[in-house]
Amino acid sequence: MSDDLSREPSAHETPTPGMSDPGMSDPRMSDPEVSVPELSASLRSLAGSGAAPAPMAGAQVRRRAVTRRRRRHAALAGGAAVAVAALAFGLTSALDGGSDARPAPPAAPSTRSAAPAATVDLGTRTLTLDGRRVPVSSGSTSHPTRTGRMTVVAKHRVKRLTSESVGLGDEYDVKLPWVVELRGPDGRANFILAMTYAEGAPGVRDSTRGAIGLRSADARWVYGRLSPGAVVAVRG
User: Fold this and answer.
1) Which residues contact 12 (CB under 8 A, 6 or more apart)?
2) DSSP character for 103?
3) Predicted TM-score (pTM) above 0.85
4) What average pLDDT does the chain have?
5) Fold of 118-235
6) Backbone angles phi, psi at 137, to 5 degrees
């Protein structure tokens, strides 16, 4: 009997159930918890959840690109329109000075356009200012007073006058009060002044070297009413 137990089974013998090698067990005897079809379905679902989206057709890609370009162009056009409108508004405000801005005052009239504040008539030996006429003495025949429109450029309570200042060499050098300095378009100077050395000459005779001489009281009155920038018209 010991011989029967110790011998190897022959190739023609069929193994006894339950007595075979554990490593060679029959799959049908394993009783798995999940069937093969269920496992396959689970794997397919897991793979589908992480898969990339299906590629779009070429026509669809082109349509989306065109749509994006149109949106960018529309945004750029809108931004440009806003910038242009802002610039136009700024320029209009700058030119108009704003809706409640006051208009700029008119520029000061030039000597040619400004109305004369005073008029000197050499023929009648008078100066008219503010409706009042006062007598004057003008230049002699050898030293005539220049005519035309002149502008007041300065006033002097007392001024030293020399013949050189009016281009007459060294004929005289005196100090006179209530001097109104005039300047003609040619830049040459002339003066309205008090003739303290010949109070009786104004209105009677012409005895200056080209200046417009007045009596001291009249010269002071004219001095107080003419300001720099005023125009004096001198006519013969």
Assistant:
1) none
2) P
3) no
4) 75
5) L,D-transpeptidase catalytic domain-like (2.40.440)
6) -125, 130
